[in-house]
Amino acid sequence: MHKRIPVFSLRRSIPLFILGFAILLMLGSHLLLKPFVTQLFYQTAEANLIHTLNRLQGTFEYLLERDDLDGVQREIVSTGMHAEVRHLLVMDASMHILASVNLNYVGQHLDQLPLHFDRRLPFRVMERQRPEIQLVTRFENSLYGLTPVQIPLHDAAGTLEAETGLILLELDLDQSAQQGWHQLEGVFIWVSLGIVTLAVFLWVWSEWFIGRRLTLITEAVDKIRQGELDTQVALKGRDELGVIADALNHMLESLRHGRDELMRTHAQMDSILRHIPSMVYIKNLQGIYTLGNKHFYSYFGEDTKGKLVFDLLEEPYATDIKSYDDEVIRTGRPLQFECSFPVDGVMHSWFMVKFPLFDDQGLPEAICSVATNVTEQERNEYMLGVSRRIFEHAAEGIMITDDVNRVIDVNASFERISGYSRESVLGKDPAFLKSDLHDIYFYQAMWNQVKAEGSWKGELWNKRPDGTAYPVRLSISSIRDRRDLPTGYFGIFQDVSEEYQARTKLRKLAYRDSLTGLFNRLAFKEKVHEYLARARRYNDSFALLFVDLDLFKEVNDSFGHEAGDVLLKQVADRILGQVRDTDIVSRLGGDEFTLLISPVENDIALASIAENLIETLSRPFQLDDIEVTIGCSVGVVSYPRDGENLDKLMRHADAAMYHAKALGRGCYAFFDADLDQRNHRLMQIKHGLRHALSRNEISLVYQPEIHLETQNIFGYEVLMRWHSEELGSVSPAEFIPVAEESDIIADLTSWMMVQACRDLLPKLNDQMQIGVNISPRQFGGDRWLTLIRQCIDQEGLKPSQLCVEITEGALIRDMEQAVVQLSELRKLGIRVAIDDFGTGYSSLSYLKRLPIDFLKIDQTFVADIETDQDDQAIICAIINMAQSLGIGLIAEGVETKEQLEFLKSHGCDIAQGYYFARPMPVDKIKC
Fold first, then answer.
1. Which residues pair with 549 in a beta bridge?
2. DSSP one-letter code for 9
3. Judging by beta carbons within 10 Å of its beta carbon (0-12, 13-18, 19+), is residue 544 exposed, middle or buried?
4. Of 597, 594, 568, 567, the residue nearest 582 (C-alpha)
5. Would you give the DSSP letter of residue 257?
6. Separation of alpha carbons 143 and 171, rounded Å
7. Does pTM top 0.85 for this prediction?
8. Is the Cα dihedral 506, 511, 515, 521 positive or negative?
9. What element of type H or E holds 173?
10. Of 196, 368, 422, 538, which has the most beta carbons under 10 Å away?
């Protein structure tokens, strides 16, 4: 018999392994570890160098700031005491040495020193203002580091300035590295000695090591004999013992595989019993429960083992289950049936399968039951039936489609509402219901929302087979499966034709002016937005005309609001008669109307429309037995030239309309940029006037009126001035018309009357008069009369000292009212002057009827009196007429001696103007 020799002897391996390990350790220390340690040392040296430079930079700047150069030298000497420091220098901006470890270097230039770094390095540091490091190994093994330092300087005047110098530090890496490496070599020597010692120890130890391994194998065999198949012989290798251990482990693996396969089969069955959504339980032939899964225990509890069915269920349910068990035992065949019994007082429906379990001889030994709770399924079937009846009898139309949006079912209400039969729509795309009232983008947006959010609700128009469109309120929702994937869609809709008709009527009421029947402001805005959308889409244009009635307020004030309403209806009819059926006419409110004209041919056509409107509305209107004449002013803008949105178009049209009014009313005007600027200033004036009095921005000046015969002061005309914080000085020609358009003029007049009395009454004698202007807007009411009475009663004003100046236009508007009001003034003893005479009606009839004391000749006639014979003739005529009627004359705007002589020679009584004096504040008046 031949003895088998192992491929690899364990006893030989131990000393060989120790010897090889010692050799590898020594080689690794010299070939791998030394370069690595050297590189690690260089990296550490660089980090330490940067840290030292930063520390020295802060220390030197602190010492230099205090002019402590000795302290710098001490710090250098202290740092230079380290053996690895070769050079440590501090240099100024010109690179001359200020301080050094070697005192002989002080004062020398850097280029004179025996240093081997790159000479461009200092300039790079000065330029970048940050530290730089350079390793030099050619002539020496050194590490150079440079960093900038701020050096304070004092000039002749004692002013502290600073320049940038340098700190240079050179480290000797050889000395540091060698010292560290010698220490490391010492460590390796001791480690090598330790390994040799360990090798001797292991040699002795290996002699008994094999005995220990044999013991492990013996113990493993004993455990296997005892049936512990999970035992593992923890021996590896190709020696004798390793071969034995490998054979034992292979045998154990085979045994464990068979056992694990059996356990896996058992675990699978157990998992099935745990997760099957049914009760599974086993009874023996005596009806005693022996096993159940978790669903069985969840219904009847964990303590069911050893119990009978009569312990779990009440009668007659227990007897019924027992009869089924007996039949299975008797026949030996499976049995399935449906039954019901309560659990915890709640009735459940069950689908049960019972089958016998057989022993090795083929005889039944137990009964296995599988009971599935079908209560929810029955409930779902019931609800499905209810849903079907709702689907069939719902008043709303219902359509169901598949995942590709093809109709799979509709209800009877769908057929009734849509007019399509069920058979004609099955399999079709619901697009056959689309009307032409929605574009493709509407339907795209609708389906995008359905796909993104799962549903869509809204109103749209469908069409019937005959092509007629009808409105519906529709709700679309997606149908999803258990994985939340869409499997179809259903839509529910109802016909809202009657509701739509009612809404249309309400909309008509909401969008129509109740008085004129024209579109109102809300409808006008929507129409403009529609015109804008169409114009942008088709690159088209349209025009907007802003019509404001002239003198409408006077009609309201004179004849009442009912007459004003009748007038507005007639105005609306006349405007409609001037436009096409496609044009839009709106009443914004009050006496403001707008016209939307599209298409626009050119500005000439728009001017013609505006002229026709002005001519039509300037013709007399008949209000019952009263005939009135008004007019209108028209502002014209067009898109896109004058604005690209509603706000800008309206603002520009308003500006153009105000400009038309400024031209004298009864005019039209196109918008331009200058109008926008004027309108902006007008808005600033309107806003500023509201706060002018509270901010004390309004002041009064007084212009003297001179009696030409005596050359004495006859009186003073009160004039208002406004100096705004925002606008500066604003001319009365600008702010007075703005004030007259609102109630601000009343507040200004009240303040003016009171302030003028307080300013002038202490300075004037009883024969001098105070001339104040009353706005035409105020003249129609009686508030100004009340104000005058208050000044007489409270301020001490004598009626004979007051002269009220009123323009011709204010008198002519309502002659009867003018006669009444002026008569009231005459009763009080107050004088009346017609201002700007000659520029208005200049009618002899009202001069005869009205109680007037003075005519004020407008300065436009006086200005050219020296050269213009027509002005001379007009002034002579006015003087003769006034003298004939016994009315006094006051000439405005006298600026030259020639003008004065002409007026005096022709019998003018009183004059005022720059020739005598400019308007002056009260403190300049000397009487």
1. 632
2. -
3. buried
4. 597
5. H
6. 5
7. no
8. positive
9. helix 173-225
10. 368
Q: How many CA atoms are closer than 13 Å to the CA of 559, on its beta-carbon side?
A: 20
- Give the rounded percent of residues in the chain with a pLDDT score beyond 70: 87
688/814 Cα distance (integer angstroms): 32
Cα distance between the two ends of the chain: 162
Q: Backbone phi, then psi, for 781, in 5-degree steps?
A: -105, -165
Round to whole Å and give the CA distance between 23 and 11: 20
Residue 622 per-residue DSSP state:
E
Residues near 762 by beta carbon (within 8 Å), at least 6 away in sequence:
none
Q: Please spell the DSSP secondary structure of 645-658, one letter per residue.
A: SHHHHHHHHHHHHH
Residue whose structure tokens are 């004939």:
884
User: Torsions phi, psi of 780, nearest 5?
Assistant: -70, -20
Distance CA 615, CA 631 (A): 8
**How remote is the C-alpha of 329 from its chain's centroid?**
79
Helices 732-740, 673-692: axis angle to 10 degrees equals: 70
Bridging pattern class, strands 888-891 and 854-857: parallel
Query: What DSSP designation does 583 have?
Result: S
Dihedral of CA 643/648/654/655: which sign? Answer: negative
> CA 416 to CA 470: how far, in whole Å?
13
- Note whether 350 and 373 are within 8 A (CB): yes
**Among candidate residues 887, 816, 813, the one with its CA nearest the CA of residue 847:** 887
* More confident call, 407 vs 687: 407
Provide the 8-state DSSP code for 458.
Answer: E
The separation between CA 561 and the C-alpha centre of its own chain, rounded to angstroms, equals 47
**Rg, the chain, Cα only:** 58
Report residue 660: phi and psi, to 5°.
Answer: -65, -40
| Beta carbons of 912 and 703 less than 8 angstroms apart | yes
| pLDDT tens, residue by residue, 441-478 | 889 999 999 988 989 999 999 999 998 999 999 999 99
Do 592 and 546 form a contact (C-beta atoms < 8 A)? yes
Closest residue by Cα to residue 773 from 756, 792, 797: 756
Give CA separation, 863 vs 34, 432, 717, 842, in Å.
Answer: 114, 83, 19, 19
Contact 467, 432 (CB under 8 A): no
**Tens-place pLDDT, residues 692-740:** 888 999 999 999 999 988 889 999 999 999 998 888 898 888 888 888 7
d(CA 659, CA 633): 9
Within a 10 A sphere around the Cβ of 532, how many other Cβ atoms? 18
Amino acid identity, position 110? L
Helices then strands, each counted (H, E), the chain: 30, 31
- Residue 630, token pair as written in the block: 């008004």
| One-letter amino acid for residue 779 of the chain | F
**How far is it, in rounded angstroms, from Cα 895 to Cα 900?**
8
The three-class DSSP label of residue 246 is: helix
Reported as a single tens digit per residue, the pLDDT across 526-573 is: 999 999 999 998 888 999 999 999 888 888 877 888 889 999 999 999
Residue 856 DSSP symbol: E
- Asked if residue 184 lies in contact with residue 7, where contact means CB atoms within 8 angstroms, the answer is no
CA distance 676 to 137: 81
pLDDT of residue 634 exceeding 90, the answer is: yes
Q: Identify the weakest region by mean pLDDT among 16-30, 560-574, 682-696, 826-840.
A: 16-30
DSSP letter for 801, please: G
- Which residue shows structure tokens 């039944």? 364
Cα dist from 391 to 379, 398, 413, whole Å: 18, 7, 9
CB 865 within 8 A of CB 899: yes
Torsions phi, psi for 652 (to 5 deg)? -70, -35
Is residue 764 classed as helix, strand or coil in its secondary structure? coil
Distance (Å, whole) CA 87 – CA 146: 12
Please give the Cα distance from 134 to 518 (Å, whole number). Answer: 91
Asked if residues 133 and 50 have their Cβ atoms less than 8 Å apart, the reply is yes
